[in-house]
Design a protein that fits this description.
about 1000 residues, alpha/beta, Rossmann fold, Dna Ligase, domain 1, D-amino Acid Aminotransferase, Chain A, domain 1
Length: about 1000
């Protein structure tokens, strides 16, 4: 065991380490910055050494720390967490002078400290990953990655460390540039490395981490922790073990962590972190990072396992094995009950998620006690928390041996209620409010859930504070919510710091003219950077603070003299005020969208037109009312970045071959609200209109919208089915694709139209086959498998024209409406949708006298009932369906005095009007269509009944004709016969 250890940290973690050393009989030396001179960790150790400077920089001076360790005879150094705890160069420097760094090896620190390298390890180990760029990225690379994943969004992360620092979720490309620079600035300040990388954002995710412990030979896991409750990627509440993780998935995640740890013969404590999507079958969890150090939330693992992790970490660094510690990797301690850690921070949260550090002196600091309650803190009455550090004031750890999660939550509420902190604003009331939320009991949360309910939490916590203020007999409650008064001696025009922070950048110079809202400076507080913007237009007259200085709330940063907005404004600022000026980042977005349009691909368009076919966008423009179509997911590209360049994909796979959105159809007749229609068009000029990963995602999104909003759907289905070349995600099987179920679920809920022109095979055909009505051109081919699939199955070699031509599919009833070309197809679709959009005000009634001659006087004479159908309905309104199939019955949609109806009639010219199997199927399906969408049915009857005889029974006549009875018996619409 070591003789003496330098504790190179501060706050509650320094105290935690000193206590562990004391219990092991090891002497301790602590260090402190000038602004930490009164901190408890200074008094707790056997010796304490001043670092001679203030702020975080004091604890980041690796040379000074190593010198202190050598001067005081320390044979080891414990870095705690944060600061230098994950710096491989620091660990190497310690080893070079004979000081043991208590943590993993320098090589392991280098590996896991480089988040991109850690991703590479995960990939080699077969551990699932979220699609990302596994190296430090430039801004242009980040933009390109965002373009690929725009529907999901992306996350920017610091390469050199975690804990939410240097991390932003980006949903909008306009925010990308500023967020990229902020992340680099935060990463540099926190880890000394500005590099960042990017990953796709997982929405609705849970955050699960696995605690591992290794001695360089054996590795074991001490269970998992649920860290889902976060604000802006910074943990707030942690739970061990996870109360909501299915056992099988837990085992897979733990195995993934152990696989990676064993691959590098891990030494010491480490945490492997994962995002979990309980709704996903194909990607239920992904590795995000590993923290090669002690974690803030190690406490709850200690509570449920009984293992002192800090002592174990020290013992392993001293050369002991897991066996020496009484730990067997094959028999990890089973968790005993549940434990929760609540982070009490000296901060207040606003409804937008931004945090303001508390400011002042702790006048009261009473902490809870009792069974199952532990508090790790460096706070005390009389302490004045420094704004220069993390705002963590105390960790409230609550444990219950019960297997029922409700018990530990109930104990947590009691413990939180016993806390009394005055003099400095904290998040205590917010935690109390959070503990009462029903979602806490059910764990119906995700990593961004807290942000979504933050307005409610803030409002409830403010009400708690207000009640305390009303019942207080002294001024204690004023300290619960201190208000910072501005400086009384600030010069006129001074722009003041709104919070305690460090000034990291001045964006202006003396003499600059700035418009209202312009960025003046950047402040850093609580690991995050905040822009300080101009409250009004003016001229900068003085800079009162230096970059790097720490400022208190109300300190003057600069003087901004109010000026006439129209004078002394630079050209760039004039451009910013010009409503016609387009910023560079906006222009990039505009240019990127332009590359998805037909005009950007003249060669592809020329080939299309040479075949007398229209493009996907031309068909949509014809279908939708002018200017009404709003596209969704236009910037998606094929998921093939592992084998093709992003530029190539942008140029050749616009919208990933699927144009989707919402537009108006027949708005001039029925109004804009009833006209709303979802439209999907496979683009046959992009990878033959095949179904790719991202166009599946787009399709699923728009289909869910259609179901949710009850919007009709029109699908232009030309294309070749599933695409084999998308390689940007690990997919074990295709069974996870939800597109087909989502499309089928629309049947009977909303009108669904499938349009086929050209070749439509495989997955594309499967979708169109679920449509209410299929409209197809005469030159179309429609089949469940194309030539390649047929040949691959050993079924012969065929040309595309041989598979499912319209002449076959019209006669067999697959095609409902056969048209000459795409223009007619779109016209038919508009007409079809109109029947479900309402009544028309204007109509023309045909000459009713002509109906007198439709039925012959000779009742034995066959006749065409279609003449009767034409005479009954408004002129031009009749839309016959399935005219090539089931000729014993005619079925049409039509209008009578502007009102939409379903119209069906026997055909005496076929079997004397008798109903055969095909006619029965046709009639039953037609009644189901009308019933689903509320159209009354008019049936013209002239039939001897069902067709009979030995031959007709060979067609399963009994079952087919009975479908008419079943369909009619289910009708809920008016039926006229």
């Amino acid at each position: 065991m070591f003789n003496k250890v330098l504790v190179a940290n501060r706050g509650e973690v320094a105290l935690r380490i000193v206590r562990a050393l004391c219990d092991l009989g090891v002497a301790s030396v602590t260090v402190y910055a000038d602004d930490d001179a009164q901190a408890p960790h200074v008094r707790s150790a056997d010796a304490a050494v001043a670092l001679g400077t203030s702020g975080p920089a004091a604890y980041l001076d690796n040379a000074r720390l190593i010198d202190i360790a050598r001067e005081h005879g320390c044979d080891a150094l414990h870095p705690g967490y944060g600061f230098l705890s994950e710096r491989a160069d620091f660990a190497r420097d310690c080893a070079a002078v004979g000081v043991r760094f208590i943590g993993p090896t320098p090589d392991q620190l280098a590996l896991f400290g480089d988040k991109a390298a850690a991703r590479d390890l995960a990939q080699r180990c077969g551990v699932p990953l979220m699609p990302g760029v596994s190296h430090a990225v430039t801004l242009d690379e980040a933009r390109a990655f965002f373009a690929q994943h725009a529907p999901n969004g992306i996350v920017i992360k610091a390469v050199g460390g975690g804990g939410g620092r240097g991390m932003r979720a980006i949903d909008n490309e306009i925010d990308l540039s500023a967020a990229y620079e902020r992340c680099r600035g935060e990463a540099l300040a926190a880890f000394g490395i500005a590099d960042v990388y990017v990953e796709r954002l997982m929405r609705g995710a849970r955050h699960i981490e696995v605690q591992v412990l290794g001695d360089g030979h054996a590795v074991m896991a001490l269970g998992e922790r649920e860290c889902t409750l976060q604000r802006r990627f910074q943990k707030l509440v942690e739970i061990a073990p996870s109360p909501s993780l299915p056992g099988a998935l837990r085992a897979r995640i733990v195995d993934a962590a152990l696989t990676m740890a064993r691959a590098v013969r891990y030494e010491g404590l480490g945490t492997f972190e994962f995002l979990v999507d309980l709704q996903s079958a194909d990607l239920p969890f992904v590795f995000i990072e590993a923290n090669a150090r002690l974690q803030v939330e190690h406490t709850i693992t200690e509570a449920v396992t009984g293992v002192d992790l800090v002592q174990a970490q020290i013992a392993l660094a001293a050369g002991q094995s897991l066996a020496d510690l009484g730990l067997d990797p094959a028999r990890a301690p089973a968790p005993r009950g549940h434990a929760m850690q609540w982070r009490i921070n000296a901060e207040t949260l606003s409804v937008d998620g931004s945090a303001t550090p508390g400011h002042g002196t702790l006048t009261r600091f009473d902490l809870p006690q009792g069974p199952g309650v532990r508090v790790d803190t460096h706070g005390f009455a009389g302490a004045a928390p420094s704004p220069h550090y993390d705002t963590l004031l105390a960790k409230l750890i609550v444990h219950s041996p019960s297997r029922d999660f409700a018990d530990v939550l109930r104990r947590s509420r009691r413990a939180l209620a016993e806390v009394r902190i005055e003099g400095v604003a904290t998040n205590l009331n917010l935690l109390r409010t959070l503990a009462e939320r029903p979602e806490m009991a059910t764990q119906a949360v995700h990593t961004r859930w807290l942000e979504s309910v933050l307005p409610e939490l803030v409002d409830a916590s403010e009400k708690i504070a207000a009640r305390a203020l009303q019942t207080s007999t002294d001024r204690r409650s004023h300290a619960e919510n201190p208000r910072i008064a501005p400086m009384t001696d600030a010069p006129p025009g001074a722009v003041l710091a709104p919070m305690p922070a460090r000034l990291v950048a001045l964006s202006v110079q003396v003499g600059d003219s700035v418009p209202a809202g312009a960025e003046l400076a950047v402040l850093e507080a609580m690991k995050m950077q905040h822009a300080l913007n101009a409250p009004h237009a003016g001229v900068v007259r003085a800079l009162l603070a230096e970059v790097g200085a720490y400022v208190a709330p109300g300190d003057a940063i600069l003087v901004l003299e109010e000026a006439d907005h129209a004078t002394d404004i630079t050209t760039a600022q004039q451009a910013a005020h010009d409503p016609d000026h387009i910023r560079a980042d906006l222009q990039r977005v505009i240019d990127r969208h332009a590359r998805t349009l037909d005009a950007a691909r003249p060669d592809a368009m020329a080939k299309r037109h040479a075949r007398n076919q229209r493009t996907a966008r031309e068909n949509i423009a014809d279908l939708c009312d002018e200017g009404s179509f709003i596209e969704y997911g236009a910037l998606a590209i094929a998921a093939q970045t592992r084998r093709r360049s992003v530029e190539d994909l942008i140029a050749n796979t616009p919208a990933d071959g699927m144009v989707t959105g919402v537009g108006g159809v027949n708005g001039g007749i029925f109004g804009a609200e009833r006209a709303r229609t979802t439209v999907m068009a496979y683009d046959a000029t992009v990878l033959a209109g095949t179904q790719g990963m991202r166009n599946h995602a787009k399709t699923d999104r728009i289909l869910n919208l259609a179901l949710q909003e009850k919007l009709p759907v029109v699908l232009f289905a030309e294309g070749g089915g599933g695409r084999p070349g998308d390689v940007d995600a690990n997919v074990l099987a295709g069974l996870h694709v939800g597109t087909f179920a989502a499309y089928a679920a629309l049947s009977g809920e909303v009108p669904v139209v499938g349009i086929v022109a050209g070749r439509c095979f495989a997955g594309n055909a499967a979708l169109v086959g679920c449509s209410d009505v299929i409209i197809a051109t005469k030159d179309s081919n429609l089949g469940m498998g194309g030539p390649a699939m047929i040949e691959g199955g050993g079924l012969g070699v065929f040309a595309p024209e041989d598979v499912g031509p319209s002449g076959v599919q019209h006669v067999n009833g697959v095609i409902d409406v056969l048209v000459a070309d795409e223009q007619e197809a779109v016209h038919a679709a508009r007409q079809y949708l109109g029947f479900f959009q309402g009544h028309t005000r204007d109509w023309i009634t045909p000459d009713q006298r002509l109906l007198r001659r439709v039925v012959p006087e000779n009742r034995l004479r066959a006749y065409d009932t279609r003449a009767a159908m034409q005479g009954l309905v408004d002129e031009g309104s009749l839309l016959p369906l399935r005219t090539g199939f089931g000729t014993g019955i005619h079925t049409s949609l039509a209008r009578i005095e502007g009102r939409p109806v379903g119209l069906m009639a026997n055909n005496p010219l076929h079997l004397g009007g008798a109903i055969d199997a095909d006619a029965a199927d046709k009639g039953a399906r037609f009644m189901q269509l009308c019933n689903a969408h509320g159209l009354p049915i008019v049936s013209l009857i002239d039939t001897p009944g069902f067709m009979v005889g030995p031959e007709v029974e060979k067609t399963a006549q009994v079952r087919h004709v009975s479908r008419l009875f079943v369909a009619a018996g289910a009708l809920r619409v008016p039926f006229f016969s």
